[in-house]
Amino acid sequence: MSIKIDKQQMRRAFEKAAATYDEVAVLQQEIGDRLIARLGIMKHKPKRVLDVGAGTGVCAKALANFYPRAHIYTLDIAHSMLLRARDRMAWWQKLIKRHSYVTADAESLPFADASVDMIFSNLAVQWVDDLEALFSEFRRVLAPGGMLIFTTFGPDTLKELRESWNKVDNSSHVNEFQDMHNIGDLLMHTRFAEPIMDMEYLTLTYKDVFGLMRDLKQLGAHNVTHDRQRQLMGKQHLQKMIQHYETFRADGVLPATYEVVYGHAWAPAGQIQQAEDGSHSAVIPLQEIKPVKQV
Ligand SMILES: C[S@@+](CC[C@H](N)C(=O)[O-])C[C@H]1O[C@@H](n2cnc3c(N)ncnc32)[C@H](O)[C@@H]1O
């Protein structure tokens, strides 16, 4: 399942965006807060937490506060993002040395098999071309009983902008996003247990289309698909797109819809077995099953 991201271009865009990202990442921070809030009901106590696509480290810092005894590995493909993440930590957090910063590609993690207890990722999964490779890599580095928890964007994200560009030409102007059902299937396929997916819509509003386009650029989140329009955009094309976008105006503002997808799944504590009907089950050694306390 491939979404045709130009990885070099994507990395360059995020390297450049590191300086402006925090000013405009309101939605990203809101979704990050919502994802962190979910950890409260998980009862998972990881010792080693890996934040994949950590950006400027807002969530990594929240993870360090949430799991004060854990070692936090903050990973991003864009080095300049990680420099910001390191600066963000409080002096005492720097002093206790429970943080590592890793510039690497999530599709090829520089971690040993079964070496972390939790993988957390807020809004980075949608930037990876091959989700099957990504989840296989996550599964490889997660220790038995480890948890993967993440957010990504679904296909309705920026639907107004996509539809408006579709009125102009057939080129790709907006990144493509995967359906959450496909993502859930891929988690099963890559031998994760008990995947749970859900979604919600969040809408940002803008005075004009330029405001939205400016935000996307400052976030580093403009179109980086291989078949994107590469020539300079004619004024008439842009005007036509804007004219169509204006038809979405309501209560004096332009909406930008985001389909936010939440997922979590587990690396089974035992060895996974596949049945003839395609379902999976885990075989857990008897000594690892804790007896239920009788009252
Ligand atoms: C939208 S930002 C989210 C940042 C942060 N998680 C947050 O909540 O603000 C996506 C981040 O994922 C990183 N990223 C994208 N593809 C990646 C990959 N293949 N490996 C590692 N990081 C990646 C980008 O460099 C960027 O910093």
Give a quick summary of the entry.
This protein has 295 residues and is α/β, with parallel strands linked by helices.
Instruction: For the record, give the distance between the C-alpha atoms at the N and C termini, rounded to a whole number.
Output: 50 Å
Model regions low in confidence, pLDDT < 50 over at least 5 residues? 283-295
**Major sheet characteristics:** 7 strands, mixed
| Beta-strand residue percentage | 15-25%
The top level CATH class name of the domain at 7-155 and 177-200 and 260-270: Alpha Beta
- The class by helix and strand makeup works out as alpha/beta
Helicity, as a percent range: 25-40%
Instruction: Using the CA coordinates, give the radius of gyration.
Output: 21 Å
Question: Could you tell me the mean pLDDT?
Answer: 88
CATH architecture of the domain at 7-155 and 177-200 and 260-270: 3-Layer(aba) Sandwich
Q: Care to describe what's here?
A:
- The protein is built from 11 helices and 9 strands.
- It is an alpha/beta fold.
- The protein has a domain at 7-155 and 177-200 and 260-270: Vaccinia Virus protein VP39 (Rossmann fold, 3-Layer(aba) Sandwich), CATH 3.40.50.
- The strands form 2 sheets. It has a 7-stranded mixed β-sheet, sandwiched between helices. A two-stranded antiparallel ribbon has the order 8-9.
- Helix 3 (26-39) packs parallel to helix 4 (58-66) and helix 8 (159-166) crosses helix 11.
- Mean pLDDT is 88; it is low at 283-295.
Give the topology.
Layout: H1 7-17, H2 21-24, H3 26-39, E1 48-52, H4 58-66, E2 71-76, H5 79-88, H6 91-95, E3 99-103, E4 116-122, H7 131-141, E5 142-153, H8 159-166, H9 180-189, E6 193-206, H10 209-219, H11 235-245, E7 254-266, E8 271-274, E9 280-283
The chain binds S-adenosylmethionine (SAM).
S-adenosylmethionine is lined by residues 14, 25, 28, 32, 53-55, 58-59, 76-78, 81, 105-107, 122-124, 127-128.
